[in-house]
Specification:
The chain is mainly alpha-helical and 132 residues long. Helix content is 77%, strand content 3%. The chain starts with a helix and ends in a 6-residue tail after the last helix. About 10% of the residues have low confidence.
Amino acid sequence: MAKNKVSKSRSKSQAAQVIDTKVPFGLDLTNPLIKKSVTVYIPAMICVLILMYIDAAYSGDWSRIGIISKSQEEFLRQFAIISVVIHGGLGIGAASISKRRGEKTYLSRGLKTFIVGIVGFSEVLYITEDQL
């Protein structure tokens, strides 16, 4: 009976270690390339896509040359407002979670989440400051 309790506690601690080093979809963060991709490359690509979105919604160039219509441009503007609110909430949530853990970089993690959205929030949830 005592061995069973010991093995259960070991399996729980081993499971905790697995959860700490993995993000959704089974990505192994001990691999430096995957870790760099999750923390740098994917957020950088999202920033570029967001800049393209802002350009499409507010510059007027895309509708002027016929890539999108004026009504699509107006829809993009309205959706941008919703996106800012959602990203703001995610940023505040990420900063709060990071601060509760006692991390020193909670403000920068919240700002990164505000900029890239759910990818930054997932990073805060699954990767602690020590693992970065």
